[in-house]
Write a structure and sequence with these properties.
Structural class: alpha+beta
Number of strands: 16
Number of domains: 3
Shape: elongated
Strand content: 15-25%
Radius of gyration: 33 Å
Oligomer: single chain
Helix content: 40-55%
Distance between the termini: 93 Å
Number of helices: 17
Largest sheet: 5 strands, antiparallel
Length: 472
């Protein structure tokens, strides 16, 4: 029997999480950067200004959760219109699939809220603390106390943007003029304060501090985007056949004599990347398709007097020589793109047609569960119904309620009702048939119709199915 080893036990530390290196993204100029800022201005102008617009003496876009009313210009939606939310989600999904199949992560690079607010916060950081090299030098050479004035000013500016963003978000659910007055008077309710500050906090956290971590580790789209890519999808790519072998050189060096490619290994494409990747390593899930590396590389190519496009939007087939660069657009109409487009158009057409033909009235019929049927005055069998009527138009509706479907069926109770614009009303309706008629019918439930018609508009008629119960 062998004796146990007497060698000392060596402890090893295994890191389950490797902290990432801090990214100091460098500012750049160019065509793609201009498009990014265009979408920043467009999306934020829409977001910040929309709650302040008025329409028919009310807020143009308001999602009143307490009253269960959702106003979008002339359109009033109620919880029964939930199907339109489903349609909107389908349109968004197929739109995302379509754009991704054609040109990769366009949404991520240009219009995603995380991208937009990160860009805004990074620009504030550049204004206050300087560009990449200035920030790196301060973090390396200065103490925390020396960096505190600029950093404190940056955090203050970030907080102002985040608070205004949270206030605007809450303004979509509470009339924004009332919300502003409530903030000034400190008279808001708990949930109003909660959601305004909650959204502000997460805007500050994700755009100011987490930044690329959200895109790399939290966003699910980065994980399944490859399922929508194919060799004809436009993606930001490095032309390895042209750029390699890379190597540093002076502008006067003879490139052909040295046998080097166009890439001078300057690293600027990495310095400008918001997620800190090297596009020369090929397609990576961390790439958000913003194109800033292409802008930066083009500037270097201009200085070296080399052709632009070493880093560019292109396809794998084009890089591999399967198709020519001039033929890339002709490959857009391929099966998956056509399918996504057709589905998108069909859903959009159905939704649009549904909205055009949408009735301004919603009627819900609720039976009186306490008494399905009862005998009245010794002559009639009576059933009681409660009608909940929603007027989704901007004019009051004068309505008449009638029943049909059984012989000598008569209506009693609140058979006439006026429903105010964008309001609810309840009508209690009694339907009766003579006992002599009831005795000739089968016992149990009989199908009937409850008709709600407008006195002002004869074409506006709502028929709702109901059941008339004949007791045994």
């Amino acid at each position: 029997m062998s004796e146990p080893s007497s060698s000392p036990v060596v402890e090893q530390t295994v890191l389950l999480y490797a902290p990432g290196k801090k990214i100091y993204a460098k500012a750049t100029k160019g065509w793609f950067n201009n498009w990014r800022w265009f979408f920043v201005f467009i999306t934020q102008a829409f977001y910040y200004l929309t709650p302040w617009l008025s329409w028919n003496d009310r807020q143009a876009v308001l999602f009143d959760l307490e009253a269960r009313r959702f106003y979008i210009l002339d359109l009033l939606l109620v919880p029964q219109d939930f199907i339109y939310l489903t349609a909107l989600l389908l349109l968004s999904a197929f739109g995302l699939f379509l754009f991704t199949a054609i040109a990769g992560r366009l949404f991520c690079g240009y219009a995603c809220p995380q991208t937009v607010y990160t860009e805004i916060f990074m620009q504030i950081e550049r204004w206050i603390e300087g560009d990449r090299h200035a920030r790196m030098r301060r973090d390396k050479e200065l103490s925390l106390l020396a960096r505190l004035p600029r950093r404190g000013l940056k955090f203050f500016a970030w907080a102002l943007v985040a608070l205004w963003t949270g206030f605007t978000f809450a303004g979509y659910f509470t009339p924004i003029h009332e919300l502003g007055q409530g903030v000034l008077n400190a008279s808001l309710g708990f949930w109003q304060w909660f959601w305004m500050l909650f959204y502000s906090f997460f805007t500050l956290l994700q755009a100011g501090f987490m930044r690329e971590q959200v895109c790399k580790y939290m966003c699910p789209y980065a994980r399944f985007q490859s399922a929508m890519f194919d060799p004809d999808t436009l993606i930001v790519s490095y032309d390895e056949s042209r750029g390699e072998p890379r190597g540093k050189r002076s502008k006067a060096e003879d490139q052909l004599a040295s046998g080097k490619g166009d890439c001078i290994d300057c690293g600027v494409c990495v310095e400008v990347c918001p997620t800190g990747i090297d596009i020369r390593d090929g397609l990576q899930y961390e790439c958000i398709g913003c194109g800033l590396c292409a802008d930066a590389c083009n500037q270097i190519m201009d200085r070296m007097q080399y052709p632009r496009g070493l880093v560019r939007y292109t396809t794998l087939n084009a890089l591999d020589g399967v198709v020519q660069e001039a033929d890339i657009r002709r490959r857009f109409l391929r099966p998956r793109v056509v399918i996504y487009t057709v589905l998108l158009l069909i859903i959009a057409a159905v939704v649009f047609a549904s909205l055009l033909n949408r009735s301004p009235l919603t009627v819900n019929v609720i039976r009186d569960r306490g008494a399905l049927a009862r005998e009245v005055e010794g002559q009639f069998i009576e059933n009681v119904y409660r009608l909940q009527i929603t007027n989704k138009s901007h004019e009051a509706k004068r309505l008449v309620i009638e029943g049909s479907g059984l012989p000598e069926l008569e209506s009693y109770g609140k058979t006439k009702i006026t429903v105010d614009p964008s309001a609810n009303a309840t009508a209690i309706i009694d339907l009766r048939i003579p006992i002599s008629i009831a005795e000739s019918l089968n016992k149990g439930s009989h199908k009937i119709l409850l008709r709600v018609r407008s006195e002002d508009d004869p074409s506006l008629v709502i028929n709702e199915k109901a059941a008339f119960f004949v007791p045994r």
